[in-house]
# Entry
Amino acid sequence: MHLEHGKIPDIYTRYIGRKILMVLLSAAGLAVLSIYAISTGSVQIPIKEVIITLLGKTVSSRWDIIIWNIRLPQILAAIVAGAGLAVAGVVMQSILRNPLGSPFTLGISQAAAFGAAFSVMFLQGGSVQSGVSGAVSISNQYITTGTAFVFCIFASMVILLISRVKRGSPEVMVLAGVALGSLFTAGTMFLQFFADDVQLAAIVFWTFGDVARASWKELSIMTVLISLACMYFYFNRWNYNAIDAGDETAKGLGVDVQKIRLTGMILSCIVTAAIVAFLGIIGFVGLVCPHIVRRLIGDDHRFLIPGTILCGAILLLSADTVARIIMAPHVLPVAILTSSLGAPLFIYILVRGYRI
# Structure
């Protein structure tokens, strides 16, 4: 049976249109959720007054302080960090051809946490203090992020080596990530052993991921690094599609697989290092979001990458909003909720099987 002239292009156009619509709806949902998150907390602010304040008009000096100095940096940090962890996860899953790949499950987050903790204690990358603003204050973002990045690179190179030697299976790479995570967790415990009481409490508190720690300065650094990484990832969307079909197929299409894989891992490490150095460990966002978006949009990285970025922002912002109100006036670290949401999906993937 022959299809009528123009029918295939029409079907393809509708197919692409549905994917674009999903991305646009996600962006709209993120905008609405952001306004709601700013208005919600221990102090309720009417949504109308939130919008007026964000437009630059002063309704109340009290609202101005709460919105501009407290809630807006936290909301934006959740959006940026969620987007960064999610896009790092989807890229790792593609270039490693490992559906369980993410900064958390492959031990890279733990490596970054060890590097950041080492910097805080020994390289004067942060000052330990007791106060309402947090137990650890990062005084030198460059040293802390750089140290976290070095340990990130080490962990990722081990994963890459395993993926190339005898073509390690996804199970082998995940087990290697678990081993690396245990190694760097042990290293962090070693540092804690030599810390005094105040430092010990500070490091344990810092390890809990919390987007409320980010000020405008930390937010700007994370935004620049993650934005540049996202642009690079999207620019290479066709290369990731080719790699998903297999290394030999990608090489036949002219893709420099080794270069794309190495650069992707390095940029994913930079993103992870910046987030962990400033906010602590936030688990499972990079694992959960790519799988959710694949279910809704598919495997085409033209739409998978922007969809995953938006999904990560929505997921982390939603978790942070719930963490702020579930036990108000006490605020839970957002990492508790993300791990609670991510663990069931992780188990589901293991039980039901997976493919990429």
